[in-house]
Design goal:
alpha+beta, three-stranded antiparallel β-sheet, 8 strands, about 30% strand, Peptide Deformylase, 4 helices
């Protein structure tokens, strides 16, 4: 495993639609391992391959419950409800915003062995899934934010 460099700012790879993974081989498995190590090192809860400069539909998530989720070619199947909450991004350090997201989602993806699975999530998991799947479409949280917060500004505070 190796730490990868995070892509920061409004770069082309973060704005492009990521390519589906065609074959799950040693390169893809090593990439998932590197993504997890990079996410943990950066103290994030999720990471998509475009955030390390690789335009592939790969996502890793750990919302702090000790369970690492690896998603290959994930697709959002269903979304219900809406909740407005703060979000940040490892690729946009120092920036946060109030972002509306579905409070519950269902996602379909492939695991490391190429088996299809369905994952349902609510709360932070639902938010992380939507945030990371957006990265695969070239969408950043600032595109969905109702309000971008200035450094030191609290939610709900008017400036």
């Amino acid at each position: 495993m190796a730490l990868r460099k995070l892509v920061a700012g409004d770069s082309a790879v973060l704005r492009a639609q990521a390519h589906p993974v065609r074959t799950i081989d040693r390169v893809i498995l090593n990439l998932l391992d590197d993504m997890a190590e990079t996410m943990y090192h950066a103290k994030g809860v999720g990471l998509a391959a475009p955030q390390i400069g690789i335009s592939k539909q790969l996502v890793v998530i750990d919302i702090g419950d000790g369970r690492l989720l690896e998603l290959i070619n994930p697709v959002l199947l269903e979304a219900r409800g809406e909740v407005l909450d703060l979000e940040g991004c490892l690729s946009l350090p120092g920036i946060s915003g109030e972002v509306p997201r579905a409070e519950w989602v269902a996602v379909q993806a492939l695991d490391r062995q190429g088996r299809e699975f369905r994952l349902e999530g609510e709360g932070l998991l639902a938010r992380a899934l939507q945030h990371e799947l957006d990265h695969l479409q070239g969408i950043l949280f600032i595109d969905r934010a109702k309000k971008i917060l200035e450094p030191g500004e609290s939610p709900g505070e008017d400036r």
